[in-house]
Amino acid sequence: MEKPCSLLVHFDKGSAAMANEIKADLEGGDGPAKADAMRRAISLLLNGETLPQLFITIVRYVLPSEDHTVQKLLLLYLEIIDRRDPAGRALPEMILICQNLRNNLQSPNEYIRGVTLRFLCRLSEPEVLEPLVPSVLANLEHRHQFIRRHAVSAVSAIYRLPHGDQLIPDAPEFVERMLASEQDASARRNAFLMLCACAQERAVSYLLSNADRVAEWPDLLQMAVLDLIRKVCRSQNRANKGRYITIITSLLSAPSTAVVYECAGALVSLSSAPTAVRAAANTYCQLLSSQSDNNVKLILLDRLNELRTLHRDVMVGVVMDVLRALASPNLDVKRKVLDLVLDLLTPRNVEEVVLYLKKEVVKTQAGDLEKGGEYRQMLVQTIHACAVEYPEVAGSVVHLLMDFLGDTNVAAAVDVVLFVREIIETNPKLRVSMIQRLIDTFYQIRASRVCSCALWILGEYSLSLSEVESAIATIKQCLGDLPFYTVSDEGETTDSTKPAQPVVNSVTVSSRRPVVLADGTYATQSAATETISTPSIAPGSLSSTLNLRSLILSGDFFLAAVVACTLSKLVLRLEEVQPSKVESNKACTGALLIMTSILQLGQSSYLPHPIDNDSYDRIVLCVRLLCNTGDDVRKIWLQSCRQSFAKMLAEKQFRETEEMKAKAQISHAQPDDLIDFYHLKSRKGMSQLELEDEVHDDLKAATGGFTKDADDANKLNRILQLTGFSDPVYAEAFVTVHHYDIVLDVTVINRTKETLQNLCLELATMGDLKLVDRPQNYTLAPESSKQIRANIKVSSTETGVIFGNIVYETSNVMERSVVVLNDIHIDIMDYISPATCADVTFRNMWAEFEWENKVAVNTVIQDEKEFLNHIIKSTNMKCLTPPSALDGECGFLAANLYAKSVFGEDALVNISIEKQLDGKLSGYIRIRSKTQGIALSLGDKITLKQKGGS
Q1: Which residues form the Coatomer beta subunit appendage platform domain (predicted)?
Q2: Which of 115, 127, 187, 269 has the highest local Cβ count within 10 Å?
Q3: Contacts by 577-583 with C-beta closer than 8 Å and gap 24+?
């Protein structure tokens, strides 16, 4: 079904009166009037009208016209009308136009000859074409190239008809002679394509005899040569593969970028030798740096990624060339480059890669860079991945990245602090310098999430006396003077923050509100903060260090609870490393004062929202901890948290390793596979590329590299029965889904004793599917079969339906018979594949996506983990929740699933289930996506599959 269009072009589908007006204009009008009437007639025909009464009028009054526009419209009219009767024979009226077409083919005007020859390419009636063949062949030697190129196309179209070899039996010989003397690029290309399609041996012979001159041919002909080489090497033996590779190598330096691109692809398809792969990769990299179109860059990166999948060892050498594509301003290009580079990291190139990324991070500090914050976030994530895989490079970048803890892009700052947290655990040698750097830059942090993580790092990894004292002093400085607000009996507002030195360019903002005291009297409570009026504040000034104070006064009591926990850990560690009890007690008293001030602020009426119960309980726990500390509790607070974090990192690394092992393709050679021994072969006349290719092919044969990945059982599962066994025509389809294309290979079997004529497979689609072309008619002999292929385009991840009929005629019954086909449901599982994303990214997408589909749990499965595994298997999604979080038996289970479609759509699923007292499972499965189609389709799939246990 066609998609609705927002642009409505009005055209009156007309009536008999309009047909009469057209007829009158054709009979009595001049050239422009006849042209206008022909346009209206063509528009009516395209809108479904038949207009049979106009044919004779057009034959009488339009055929003799010498106006070029009228003649061109006449050919369009003849192309649109139905030229066959119900029996499939050409209409007798078509004989009337044969003389006109012959006159056009012999016209002194080159344009008339050319458009007529182009029209003949669309005719399929032998009765009309047979008288015109001599004129068509005569145009092969015309002096004008415009006519010659269309004459070759007409000869090719006629020869490829079902009985075309009888109309022009010597067509390949005529075309080959013309090709030998032709000079026009388009005519040579058309002639060469005709030989490729109709006489492949002649085309191959012509190519090999002119192999030395292929580099001098026009780019149109070079593209045709590459297509022929691909076709020959797929269908025939590779006896001349070395000569083909030589031709392709010579074309790698062609001036046309299209030819160079196709050469690289053809070279990889012909040869697996490292030299060939390296040449193709270098070609792609050169195009990547020379082309400015972002779509071209994305396509080239996809080709490089395909090479990386099959030939990673060779691709490692071009990683620096790929990195130069980061100069593109497009974020999608940058993201693909960084993903590709991450897959090509080795111990040899990781230092160069990280150094290059470090320079890119420095460039993002320039304010003129568009979307610099997002690009910086991508760079931080890439450097993080590099440092996790190769910890030795972390020291060269971690201090630079810590300057961005106060970045205005909160996502980038969060990525930096998570990177710091992981590196400080995995690289003990960098701990001291990183803690000192974090203490020095802590006052720059403005985001609550970054502050929380940074405080946790200070509480866990400040181990020496100086580090603990510096961390406590930094936290106190960022909190400012206590209390956070003051209450005066006289109702006057006092400033609770008293700077020790004058603050430049700052304004004191005081908030006051009335409050009732315990004795019933009224007072005024106020809270004062320092706000910066201009950005030019000295780093050491008080106003620039009150980041924790401003966040807590904004009502962020979760951060306040983190501050309390961090101070508790620092005080407990200070008691271990500080020999003086006086200093320890002083630090403990100061921490208790901060906690009680936070509790006092949270329970006051100054803030619109009081402190939440969780934060209150956490802070009270910290107060009790500092007042009465036992050895067991001290061990939990000072050691268990870090041990849990180390365990989480180890589990994460283990999961990534297991995923890489699962992705690794394991191939085996069959016992009867042929192995050619390279050392016993003759090397005479073979180039270096051919020698390498022989070795590589032998290795692939020995290791099973040529074995197909697809399993025969999976192929059988994709065969769908379209008709019944008792129907006169039996049909079944093999469905192949490849990204945006669906290919239906339909096998049709005539189960009758009669010949079926004009058998046609009529298909229609529902959903975001579109039939590319209508299959042609066939004639089936008794009990014979036919393979019919139909191509369907897919535009979104929605469950579509393909339905249709098989229509045919028999010689006994003149009416058409119809066999209704079973519907073909295109499954959404063919479009989505498991994917992985960070927890932060998942939560951001969950909050951003607007489409949600909520499915209630309704299953006979009684085990939570079994139900989760069943949903994962049914939806082809990836479980992001680590196995350690799913361990244990508590009667509850919550897990996040993620998948990505071939169209780039994200599918998010959250499963929350509870086991009831009767043993049944209850809960909900929530699906969120950016588009409605994937949310609804995935919900229908889950609803259908969740009840079963298989």
Answers
A1: 815-942
A2: 187
A3: 577/463, 577/464, 577/465, 577/468, 578/465, 578/468
